[in-house]
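Please, structure for the following, as tokens.
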Amino acid sequence: MIFMRSKIDKLVISFAIVFGLIGQVSAQENEALVAERDSLHLEQLVKAGIQKAYAASVRIWGYDTIKNIQNSSQFSGVVVSKEGHILTVAHAIQPGRSYKVRFPDGREVIALSLGRVGFANEDNRPDLAMIKIKEEGSWPVAEMGWSYSLKENEPCIGISYPATLNRMLPSVRFGRIVRLQNRWGFVHSTCKMEPGDSGGPLFDYMGRVIAMHSRCGRDENENYEVPIDLYRKYWRALNIAKDYKALPQQTDEIGEDPLSGSIISLISLEKPAFSLPELEERLSASTVSVTSTINGLQIKSLGTLVKVKSNHLIISKSSIVGTDVQIVTGGKNIPAKAIGRDTESDLVILQAEGRIRGGLTKDDFANSPDSLNLQNLGTLLISPLPAGSLPSSGSLPSSGTLSPAGSSLSAGRKVGIISSSYMDLPKVFSAGYFGASVQFREGKIILNRIAPKSPVDSVKLKIGDQVTGINGIPISRPEEYGGELRKYDPGDSITVECIRADSVFTKKLLLTKRPRGAHAAEQFDGGKSIRCDGFNRVFAHDANIKAEECGGPVFDTKGNFLGINIARFSRTTTIVIPAASLAKILASNVKL
């Protein structure tokens, strides 16, 4: 412990020096060198916190130990004691139940719920809960910090399991503390969350648990956390298996934070001062605006400029690039035509009909790492916007402050961190919307819920109808039902074969785009990309790339080209196709 703390203190001191918190940087020092040092130390700080905290951040779901089946939606938590105490939130658990807990290393154990403090008439506030691993073992443990010693603009890290990604490994996000306590007693941070992240830990930059994910607002920077000091205060009460109807009378001392005097608050997280002057020309010259026409409407997107011998090619997102394509760069409109489309990756290759300056070369595509692992998580990424453009509406919160994750740190770019390793993202949310759920009963696929005004509702299918086929393909198992529907896109027509009261009939319906959900996490500015999944070997970051900003390049702070933003997947997640995959697609369409 002494060694760990000494190591952290050294990192804090070195980081503070760089940001002018201890001493002052010479006014004559090269601006580019200062910016490079800033980014390097910020990245080191984030990565060190992730390394310390990652292993103890767990995925949890209700589990019937008799039937050996999951019986609740997933949520998140963190192990904070060698005895197996797991902190989470009240709205995720019920007293007296069993839960399965999965660690990032793949181990799975059973835990039992202990205390819960969340009042129905107060929207489950204060939202405290604890469960405990049933068996003895050696568990990764996260250090508990303190929330009273937090500072505004202090860097923070979220590690949890968003349900939409449905991964066995957690997703990492980075932000800052906005408010130490709002009127409901929550810590307000910019570490984005969504369903499934509930109960997940918020860490300080030293990898200590400082709060727990509870809820979010419509704005991406509105994320509310249960202060860790409440868990300290009610530690013994939470160890009793009880659903409290009032705040427990039994309380504990919170204690003192031995590092409270050295906690940093970075003004560079509040102002757009993060800059890499030596990269400006390279970043802006690689990004262009793309306009085209789809169904009579003008659609905007971004493109990544590539120079192949004497040709200038633009790679962009195929599903938002139609006909009458124009490349907008340097104040000029240049016609372009599609010379190749890869529907599997949702990429289009355009050839400009005029000269464009700049562009990535063949050598740039060799810098994408062969694999991504824990050491890569927290790497700072830059998504440049076209030269002269400003951040999209919504990237700056109303206060005028901003965070690294989900905001522009200077005009013309957005910055986030690598949130995941490489992954396959099956086509689920991008499939055409059917509007009904089913249950498997007595060997039959039976409609058990129909959404109002959905495609199914529009053709008067009813709850209780049996689905026997889709477009002539027999359907008799739940996996066949879901697998067949996922083959089709919004706008596709399908024929559904059904049985109702022994009468066989068919209905033809038009699949639509999946509607936004009512949850605040579905209401973020710009929304998801229509084609947001169905990709192989991609990775995630946490910048708030708008759907119309997909197609643009992604760099690290050294200027290495890592890939293209291909989709805004959810409130917390933007998806990137890595440079190595892009090189293969390019090679199949043009001679490099």
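DSSP finds eight helices and 33 strands in the chain. The CA atoms of residues 52 and 207 lie 6 Å apart.
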